[in-house]
């Protein structure tokens, strides 16, 4: 009997492209996916909730997690740490459920190195101008931070070839449908591989 593990989906892309918006709309439709809540040292924004949006940590607490190797990946991004708790991801995948990460590019590339069987999706803006408008209009960042995030965005976009899929976030619904198709297609692929593997095993065992 082949144990069915869950699939790790990683959504990333530049700040302001709409990762959070698209992920929330996807989760309204797909209840089978499990979202991995990240840890961060950045201050909580108005309207955010501990344990829903992030686990908010001090720099010392975060660095202890790094030392204790409790993070699947982490990155320093525009002056703060962000990271994915390892235990939740591993246990959820082991139990056969899919896990969904929404993280920036340095972290996604670390996951790809250590977990190449993951599925990596890059969310792309309709244009750099629209990206800037979205992050400015969100109104959560100071002008300096917006500029730093946009500088990072250009470097992040250069890395998009490392991803399995690129989805343009022009209309939210269209981006969500495309990600749903990716999820379905990855399940079909893995089912096919599992069937072939089963056939080979049966032939070998007689
Ligand atoms: N397809 C879209 N069309 C228009 N506006 C959008 C679209 N997707 C997201 N937005 C808006 O763009 C802003 C940024 O979206 P969001 O916060 O989801 O981005 P993000 O990639 O998660 O950002 P960050 O990486 O900084 O957390 C929000 O105000 C959101 O409402
Ligand atoms: N490498 C990681 N990046 C993460 C994680 N959780 C979120 N993020 C990304 O950080 C930036 C900034 O987020 P914000 O909430 O301050 O706007 C954004 O790209 C997030 O996707 C994580 O665990 N690891």
UniProtKB/TrEMBL annotation:
Keyword Coiled coil belongs to the record: no
Q: What is its EC number?
A: 2.7.4.8
Q: Domain Guanylate kinase-like, which positions? A: 6-184
Compartments reported by the entry: Cytoplasm
Q: Where are the transmembrane segments?
A: none
Cellular component (GO) terms are:
cytosol
Family annotation (InterPro entries): GK/Ca_channel_bsu (IPR008145), Guanylate_kin-like_dom (IPR008144), Guanylate_kinase (IPR017665), Guanylate_kinase_CS (IPR020590), P-loop_NTPase (IPR027417)
Residues that bind ATP, according to the entry? 13-20
Q: What class of enzyme is it?
A: transferase
The alphabetized UniProt keywords are:
ATP-binding, Cytoplasm, Kinase, Nucleotide-binding, Transferase
Keyword Transferase listed? The answer is: yes
According to the UniProt entry, its GO molecular function terms are: ATP binding; GMP kinase activity
Q: Please classify the protein's predominant subcellular localization into one broad category.
A: cytoplasm
Catalysed reaction per UniProt? GMP + ATP = GDP + ADP
- Family label: Belongs to the guanylate kinase family.
Functional description taken from the UniProt entry? Essential for recycling GMP and indirectly, cGMP.
Q: What is this protein called?
A: Guanylate kinase
């Amino acid at each position: 009997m082949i144990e069915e593990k869950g699939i790790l989906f990683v959504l990333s892309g530049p700040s302001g492209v709409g990762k959070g918006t698209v992920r929330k709309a996807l989760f309204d439709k797909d209840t089978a996916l499990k979202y991995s809540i990240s840890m961060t040292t950045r201050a909580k924004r108005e309207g955010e909730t501990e344990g829903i949006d992030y686990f908010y940590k001090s720099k010392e607490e975060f660095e202890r997690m790094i030392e204790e190797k409790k993070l699947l990946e982490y990155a320093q991004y525009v002056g703060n740490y962000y990271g994915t708790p390892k235990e939740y991801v591993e246990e959820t995948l082991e139990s056969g459920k899919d896990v969904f990460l929404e993280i920036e590019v340095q972290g996604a590339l670390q996951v790809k190195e250590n977990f190449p069987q993951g599925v990596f999706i890059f969310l792309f803006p309709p244009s750099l101008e629209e990206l800037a408008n979205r992050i400015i209009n969100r109104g959560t960042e100071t002008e300096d931070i917006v500029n730093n995030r946009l500088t990072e965005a250009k470097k992040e976009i250069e890395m998009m070839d490392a991803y399995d899929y690129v989805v343009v976030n022009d209309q939210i619904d269209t981006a969500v449908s495309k990600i749903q198709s990716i999820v379905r297609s990855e399940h079909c692929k893995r089912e096919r591989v599992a069937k072939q593997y089963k056939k080979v095993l049966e032939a070998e065992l007689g």
